[in-house]
């Protein structure tokens, strides 16, 4: 590692005034620092701030940014109201990492693209303007949706996929004292010409909470993750679904996908293809067609396109109770 200054914040207000890179669990940042992919000049330790509670709010939950992933997954209210979120958290990493990883940090974890981690490779995300070796390289884990000529990396998270389907809102504190509420759908940026800009957070802005609204009544929830091995592996394709059916007709549909794009992916066209339609194979096929319009493989990851279709259709069968 390169040398850096370290300070411990005593309050969220002190943290945003400190002018450094925030660190809590450090489960991703420390790896990046060891490889010199990231070289912050100052770390601001926020791990002791009073942001580790889960409170009920307006029928939903207000989750502190420092709640460990393991605690969030095991909370009885999360299990009862947001089972897709609990399952997504338990599908991520290992038990030891979940004990350290925080809710806010999970939202901000960075891609696991091989070329991003290799400081000898060209990577516009790590070194803007250097190129993207992934496009013509080994790109098995890379994106098929929302890509650009500058970057085809994927967001690696499980928890953010479930939170996207559950309409989460990110609550932040800015250095000037203002607070923001950012819908998770507006939080992440697509790569475009600036893949190094991953979120809409401003310099020094701190995530303090994540707010979850009350879940739709009567809806089933699901989180399904397809990966190379049963544990401690990132998703090739994942889906979080919240679907309600009345008298054989789909009355609510919210679906988010991981492993496919630069951000947890949610496409209104997919949900439009489901809403008000019968819970049957033709409807599921139409939703998959909507999702994969414009999907593009880059060679090694071409298999993700048919795999995504199968994962979505199977998930919809389970969510609606439609037999295979």
UniProtKB/TrEMBL annotation:
PANTHER family: ALDEHYDE OXIDOREDUCTASE FAD-BINDING SUBUNIT PAOB, XANTHINE DEHYDROGENASE SUBUNIT C-RELATED. InterPro entries: CO_DH_flav_C (IPR005107), CO_DH_flav_C_dom_sf (IPR036683), Diverse_Substr_Oxidored (IPR051312), FAD-bd_PCMH (IPR016166), FAD-bd_PCMH-like_sf (IPR036318), FAD-bd_PCMH_sub1 (IPR016167), FAD-bd_PCMH_sub2 (IPR016169), Mopterin_DH_FAD-bd (IPR002346). Keywords: FAD, Flavoprotein. It comes from Sphingomonas olei. The keyword Glycoprotein does not apply. Residues 1-217 form the FAD-binding PCMH-type domain. Transmembrane segments: none annotated. SUPFAM superfamilies: CO dehydrogenase flavoprotein C-terminal domain-like (SSF55447), FAD-binding/transporter-associated domain-like (SSF56176). This is Xanthine dehydrogenase family protein subunit M. It comes from the Bacteria. It holds the Pfam family FAD_binding_5.
